[in-house]
Amino acid sequence: MITHRTTTVEDLTLRELDVIRLVTNGRSNQEIGAELYLGINTIKTYIRTAYRKIGVTTRVQAVLWGVHQGLLEGYEVVQKHDATQSRHAS
Packing angle between helix 59-68 and helix 14-24, nearest 10 degrees? Predict the structure, then answer.
């Protein structure tokens, strides 16, 4: 379950942010460990503490959080346009 926290990337340590960025971009724990030169148990610890800080419990939720924070490489977050405002502006 996602909790409604206002956690931002600034609330994570640099290493937690590195790990969540790689999770957001589809890397496995093994790939993250190889890229960051860390053991698998260390990666799991960073993931667990980051999940707790950002208020998520699953990898999918963490990926969505990362996307909303702009961590997905090659894409920009686009704000959802409110259709009701468009109709009233006309």
Answer: 100
What's the rounded Cα separation, in Å, for the pair 43 and 10? 19
Assigned token pair, 29: 């724990």
Do the beta carbons of residue 48 and residue 56 sit within 8 Å?
Answer: no
Q: What is the mean pLDDT of residues 17-23?
A: 97
Q: Which two tokens stand for residue 4?
A: 């409604």
Instruction: With H, G, I as helix, E, B as strand and everything else as coil, classify residue 43.
Output: helix
| Domain-wise residue ranges, the chain | 9-89
CATH 2.40.128.50 for domain 9-89, yes or no, is no
List, for residues 48-89, the tens digit of each pLDDT value: 999 999 999 999 999 999 999 999 988 776 666 555 555 555
